[in-house]
Design brief:
By secondary structure, the chain is mainly alpha-helical. About 10% of the residues are buried. It is elongated, with a radius of gyration of 16 Å. The protein has one domain (about 5-85): lambda repressor-like DNA-binding domains (434 Repressor (Amino-terminal Domain)), CATH 1.10.260. The protein contains six helices and no strands. The protein is about 75% helix and about 0% strand.
Length: about 90
Amino acid sequence: MSLSQNLKKLRLSHHLSQVEITKHFCISRSAYSFWKKDITHPKRDNLEKLAKLFQVDVADLTQDSRAILLNIYDTWQDKVIAYSKQ
C-alpha cells in the first residue's frame, strides 16, 4: 500500500477524522489533502509523530513508498553501470 492508503487505514482503525489529524499536527486541511492524495509526503518529524500516534514504525507507514524508491535507485544504478562500461 502507498503512504496515503496506509494513513487512511490507520486513521480509520483508530477512529480519527481527517480534521482531528490536522488539528493534532497543527497542519492545514490542504496539507493533509496533499498527503492523502500522495501529492506530497509528511516531513520526517511528522512521519515520526504519525508513527507514534498510530503505534507503528515509520517503515510501516512508508512501506510501499520505500519499495518504489528502492526500485528507482536500482534502475538508476543499472544505468550508471551501463554508461560506465561504454
